[in-house]
Amino acid sequence: MTSSEIRKKFLNFFQEKEHKIVPSAPMVIKDDPTLMFTNAGMNQFKDYFLGNKVAEATRVTDTQKCLRVSGKHNDLEEVGHDTYHHTMFEMLGNWSFGDYFKKEAIEWSWELLTDIFKLPKERLYVTVFEGDKADGIPFDQEAYDFWKGHIDESRILKGDKNDNFWEMGDTGPCGPASEIHVDLRDEADIAKIPGKDLVNNDHPLVVEIWNLVFIQFNRKADGSLHALPAQHIDTGMGFERICMAIQNKKSNYDTDVFTPLLDELAKISGKKYGELSKIDIAFRVIVDHIRAISLSISDGQLPSNNKAGYVIRRILRRAVRYGYTFLDLKEPFLFKLVPILAKQFEEVFPELKAQQELVEKVIKEEETAFLRTLENGLKRLESIKAELSSSGNATISGAVAFELYDTYGFPLDLTALIAKENGLTVDEKGFEQAMNEQKNRSKSAAKMETGDWQIVNEGRDVEFVGYDEVKADAKILRYRSVKNKNKEQIQLVLDKTPFYAESGGQIGDTGILKVSNETIKVLDTKKENDLIVHFVDKIPAQLDAKVHAQIDNDRRRKIVYNHSATHLVHAALREVLGDHVQQKGSLVSDKLLRFDFSHFSKMTDEEILKVERRVNEKIRENIPQQEERNIPIEEAKAKGAMALFGEKYGDTVRMITFDPNYSVELCGGVHVPATGNIGQFKITTETSVAAGIRRIEAVTGEKAEEYHLDQEAILKQVNALLKSPKDLAQAVEQLMKEKNELQKSLEKEQSKQAGALKDELIKNAEKQNDISVIISEIALPNADALKKLSFELKNEVDSLFAVLACDVDGKPQISVVISENLVESKDLNAGKIIRDLAKNIQGGGGGQAFFATAGGKKLEGLPQVVLQAKTMAKEL
Ligand code: SER
Predict the structure, then answer these.
(1) Residue with CA closest to ligand 1 atom 6
(2) Is beta strand 463-464 parallel, antiparallel or unpaired with respect to 496-497?
(3) In terms of residue numbers, what domain contains 498?
(4) Tell me, what's the pLDDT at 380?
(5) Which atom of ligand 1 approaches the CA of 237 most closely?
(6) Are 424 and 396 in contact (CB under 8 A)?
(7) What is the pLDDT of residues 391-430, one digit of tens each?
(8) Is 534 annotated as a binding residue?
């Protein structure tokens, strides 16, 4: 079976058991402060488990893009060094939301593995939870008994909390788990050590392939467990591992999931996979990481300097470093693997194929930039080497190794390798110490303590009324306190609210809550999965009193102008630039709108103007907003609405239309009743964000008016300065022309004067034996004139010793000129002489032996320069 057949078989198997096949959620998470990336199939269903939301279907199956590179589940360091961990992997899952439980989950997993996938039963082991005293949970007898019906008891093993109690993170839904492991070793090895001794022992060929989690608890922030209102099933099967088992391979990387990538990398690097351990690790790191990088970017997360973007950047750099060090790849290469991935994922994650060109461009640019940094790091290493050798030291200190790591992205092994080649060593302990110090620093910086929700009123569904209302009467459902870098913040959930929670680019509303006589300020509103969380300045004294919630309507009005204008400009960009324009990010605030989109070159002034014109035209048309709140996604797509990559959509969506032939978008945001409200639209900047991604910023309504008024004010000012000419542009042009002419004639005049000065200096030169001495205090308009005069003197006077103490437009400057023959015969050096002379004007300078200049601060020192120079000349 090919990997793609295996995936299909899994989904079909559960579809036949009445499961609904749903798409993978995006790998990059937007509305969950506790999680940056999807790390398990269950993330997208968290709210169903917690009872915050009712599932549309109670049985679901899917394959989920997961990334385990941060937080509780982090496999990054293992990746490449072993053969069965990955950064990005697919998790096949079947789910029951309050429907079937242990019996069916166990029965069906066994049926699929042994009947459909035909894995030999004698190679399988299962584990059940042994119980935990501290948590007060007993041995999972129930699961044990169900397994007994399928598998010999000698193959049912017990596992502790570590292996058999699954938790997503520090808090959240959790429960006892039952894992299925497979033994893929050769018969001879099995004869030596029985497989059950190797289960959960990090053996590369005795691995977990499926985890069945019986979700029944919620772990709170204080560590306590609480029974959930219903029992659920969450299973996760590692796709790459099941492929290894079914295809009878010894490594995930030997399956057809990875071999096409390894082959291509071998072609690119001219190296072979499967011969040398160090090289093999590099191969595995690279073919693993490129999957994580490509799928993140196609989900809308570009590499960047913070948060999720930084995680992606680090993964990318790790791949580049392995290629650079072990495969000798000194040019960008990762991006060349993208076409293979796009093809592989074409059916299951089509978003990659759809954005292939963009993904390649972004990766290539990021690689290029990092290779440059690496090279700078190598230069830095050169200078470190020089410093060490001059001080007779042969050890690169921990601090320096860490600087190379932190600033230039040099892993310790790379520094150590280069050190070794140069007969140096690295203080590795010192490096670890510096690393730990930084880790601690960032830990304490990121520390956020989230208290448990305190329930005031029961209720799970939060009603958002803000599409139609700016106020609402509500009650408080829950609140909690969050300590962020020692600042306390109160978060509060209402059963009904007009406050829009930041999402889809639109910022959160601010406003007030009146709770009996008290006025509470709402400073921001954010989403947490499906909850609308109000960030307020204090806990209301009377928590169970009626709440009157009211948003800052003036601020909201401006936000709404910008949001609707964003839709209009999106459509205009596609008209003017082409269909390849896709939204890549947006910010909609009360001050401006920012829109990032895919486009490969800078917009011309003409294109910008066209887009502005088109948007303003649509504003004047005063197109009424058409809103459809619950339209099936397929219908919306048929009507021309584009789904954005990296966004999670349900079966039904909200669709906003401004003229069905102009702008149709899937959107959760708030909009103007008709486009005329926006007033006007003006693009203020057009810049680049990353390879292939442009950014425009624009203003609307009164901000656009202000923008124009500001421009007009400048114009008026210039007009007044020029005494209101008939044609302002022409007047400025004329002014420039006149200025240039004046400049030219001034220069001519100055050069005439300089000529006269030169002649006079030559005439008055003092003869001292064969030497012509010119020492004089003069004045010139600029430094260039002094330089010019000095060279002319040198060319025209033989055996010259000249010192010019010059007033250059109020600043003292000296020049020393000595003919080459004197430099040699008298061993003179203008550079040295000038340093002495410059002291008189509190200045400094230098130059060559025959010519030097110096500037200074003390104009009154010039006569002193002349005196000292004359004394020097006498000594010649
Ligand atoms: N949530 C469990 C896991 O990630 C099963 O899907 O292993």
Answers:
(1) 236
(2) parallel
(3) 450-551
(4) 84
(5) 6
(6) yes
(7) 888 899 999 899 888 877 777 877 887 788 788 899 999 9
(8) no
